[in-house]
Design brief:
Number of helices: 5
Distance between the termini: 39 Å
Shape: globular
Order of helices and strands: EHEHEHEHEH
Strand order of the largest sheet: 3-2-1-4-5
Number of strands: 5
Structural class: alpha/beta
Radius of gyration: 17 Å
Largest sheet: 5 strands, parallel
């Protein structure tokens, strides 16, 4: 099948968006929302670069390619700042540019703040917030040079729910995604 024949979820309307030939980097793309975004954009003939610590991301990239889309996979642990720092240079070497960055990766342990070790809290902040900051900073240098680009930060409502409907025990996730929301608004005002 061609890229436009990749199976899309019902109800997705791409509108007038044009993604043909765009290089799209998506973190946390081995499954869930990230995988769905990768498949959708590949069906719109974008070149999707899947970034995930989960090696099954390679199978997702292979599936997209065998289905007529264009995909690449970068295995990287967003919990490791050195690996995060290497992602953008690697993608630039392989594809020459980045047109769209989707910061989608999430780590969300369900634990009380008292039970959570500081190292685990810090790991959540690294994956959910600091890696997005690192990738955004490096990607902005590419995008501002060509005066165009899109950065999409995927947030979570899980931490914003009142405790009576499931928001308890998500302090690390809530803090990291709340920080990402504030960072997004401030950065958007800068560029």
């Amino acid at each position: 099948p061609s890229a436009s024949q990749l199976p899309l979820k019902e109800g997705i309307d791409m509108g007038d968006a044009t993604f043909k030939g765009k290089i799209v980097l998506i973190t946390g793309s081995a499954k869930g929302i990230g995988r769905s975004v990768a498949e959708m954009l590949a069906s719109a003939v974008a070149m999707v670069v899947l970034v995930d610590v989960d090696p099954s991301g390679r199978a997702v990239a292979d599936y997209i390619s065998k289905s007529g889309g264009a995909a690449d996979f970068v295995k990287a642990d967003l919990g490791d700042t050195a690996q995060v720092e290497g992602i953008i240079p690697l993608v630039m070497a392989r594809h020459g540019t980045i047109d769209i960055l989707v910061n989608n990766a999430i780590r969300c342990p369900i634990k009380s703040l008292v039970e959570m070790e500081q190292a685990e809290f810090d790991a959540v902040m690294q994956v959910n917030f600091r890696s997005a900051v690192q990738l955004t900073r490096k990607t902005l240098t590419v995008m501002t040079g060509k005066r165009r680009g899109v950065i999409l930060n995927i947030l979570s409502t899980a931490g914003a729910k009142p405790p009576e409907v499931g928001g308890a025990y998500l302090s690390a996730c809530a803090a990291s995604k709340g920080a990402l929301a504030a960072f997004t608004l401030s950065t958007a005002a800068e560029v």
